[in-house]
Amino acid sequence: MADNNLRRRPAAGEPAPGFAARNQFGETVELSELRGARGVVLMFYPFAFSRVCGSELAEIRDRWAEFGELGVRLLAISCDSVHTLRAYAEELARQGGPDSGAVPVEFDLLSDYWPHGQIARSYGAFNEDLGCPTRDTFVLDGQLNVRAVVSAAHTQSRDIQELLAGLQLVARE
């Protein structure tokens, strides 16, 4: 069996590895351009259109106002293509929120498609056996230093309430 995390994951207090990736609209998002934000969340997820990932991202979509109040940027990263992420964002919007109306995805879905998994690997968040990111979340402060790392099993959803609680601490600083 291959080593699932060939690179060491950055620990709390260390600078986050820089990257640039395209979002679901084909726009380039560079981590370095987010310096000075109240906080940044890098949320690696295995696959678009999968059950667990879909439930996580739908919960974030439904609770986006809570994230927005904190003023943090959320970047959800998978190895899917930009075209797949665009279709996925549209499907998430069609699924709607609590009132069953269309609710747009107001956060970036970033493509780590090519070179395949390069961003996830730089964070020690790539499963070589499955060929996809692990379910890891990195909370960064405004200087783009890692403040917290939260991991969940491949088949388990992250605790979004726990994530929001951690973000509140970073956003207050």
Low-confidence stretches: 1-5
Let me know the CATH homologous superfamily: Glutaredoxin
Mean pLDDT equals 90
CATH class: Alpha Beta
Q: Give the percentage of residues in beta strands.
A: 15-25%
Q: Please tell me what the overall shape is.
A: globular
Rg of Cα set: 15 Å
Question: What is the number of E strands?
Answer: 9
How far is it from the N-terminal to the C-terminal residue, by CA? Answer: 42 Å
CATH architecture: 3-Layer(aba) Sandwich
GO molecular function, one term: thioredoxin peroxidase activity
Domain Thioredoxin: 10-172
Active site: 53
Pfam families: AhpC-TSA (PF00578)
Descriptive tags:
Glutaredoxin; globular; two-stranded antiparallel ribbon; 5-stranded mixed beta sheet; 5 helices; disordered N terminus
Architecture overview:
- This protein has 173 residues and is of the alpha/beta class.
- It has one domain (35-172): 3-Layer(aba) Sandwich (Glutaredoxin), CATH 3.40.30.10.
- 29% of the residues lie in helices and 22% in strands.
- The protein has helices spanning 51-62, 64-70, 82-95, 118-122, 160-172, and strands at residues 20-22, 28-30, 40-44, 73-78, 108-111, 126-127, 132-133, 135-140, 146-152.
- The strands form 3 sheets. A 5-stranded mixed β-sheet has the order 5-4-3-8-9. A two-stranded antiparallel ribbon has the order 1-2.
- The longest helix is centred in the middle third of the chain and has 14 residues, at 82-95.
- The protein is globular and about 40 Å long.
- The model is unreliable at 1-5 (pLDDT under 50).
- One of its GO terms (biological process) is hydrogen peroxide catabolic process.
- This is Redoxin domain-containing protein.
